[in-house]
Amino acid sequence: MSDVNIHLPPPWPVGERVPLPADKAHHALHVQRLATGEAVRLFDGAGLAAPGVFEPVGKRLAAVRVTGPAVELPDVRHPLDLILALPRHETMDTVIRQACELGVARLHPALSERSCVPVRVARQKADHWHRVMVAACEQSGRAAFLELVPARPLTEILADDFTGARRLFFWEEAPAAHAPWGIAPGQPVVAAIGPEGGWSAAEAELFAAAGFEIRSLGALILRVDTAVAAVTAVAVHQIRAAPGCVKF
User: Fold this and answer.
1) What is the pTM for the complete model shown?
2) What does the alpha-carbon distance between residue 64 and residue 9 come to, in Å, rounded to a whole number?
3) 247 in a domain, yes or no?
4) Beta bridge partners of 46
5) Strands (DSSP E) along the chain, which ranges?
6) Which of 40, 111, 139, 222 has the smallest number of CB atoms closer than 10 Å to its CB?
7) Residues 148, 201: one domain?
């Protein structure tokens, strides 16, 4: 069984017991039901991790005794950015988990014409989305966080410098005929996925002006989270098509 991953910022002095915050202690004790001496791995979200063992401290508190020095883990991120028109709350949570598990580097939430979440609510949800992301990294063993860019208007996101990246815009109005995505091995990719109501024609023109190529995901209408999983899986496969591991 793999070690249990716990996000906890350093320092992690070797041989010493590092207390866990109350919420993480509760999760470890009463949800994961970790046993005394069970192997765990502390990580900082930037790629650094240290081994340890779990030590309960009474019924409510817990700690990790660090058993070895911190090391830098292999970077599992891919050079893949997702532009996502803000979907419903529960869908956004699912997308964040999927993006963490599939190695997406950055997620750009976009305020589009048909977004289901206004900017005020998006700002209020930022802390919640960060917690979802941390939990997904703990579950998947990912040591480097997904970069969650603050929600912005689509025009601001399209003004970012995506030079050298393969820019793909997925739209329900695009012809359903197969068209190769043209991703070269190791090439950075920026993929745009719309909201529940789809991108508008005016937004499609904005993407085209920013150098994005229109692509279809087939004749069927996909849920936002399904589209994210499909696009990410195919893009990662093509990015990694060359011999050897593509580093971010």
Assistant:
1) 0.90
2) 13
3) no
4) 144
5) 4-7, 17-19, 39-43, 48-57, 61-66, 71-72, 80-85, 106-111, 147-148, 152-153, 166-170, 189-193, 213-215
6) 139
7) yes
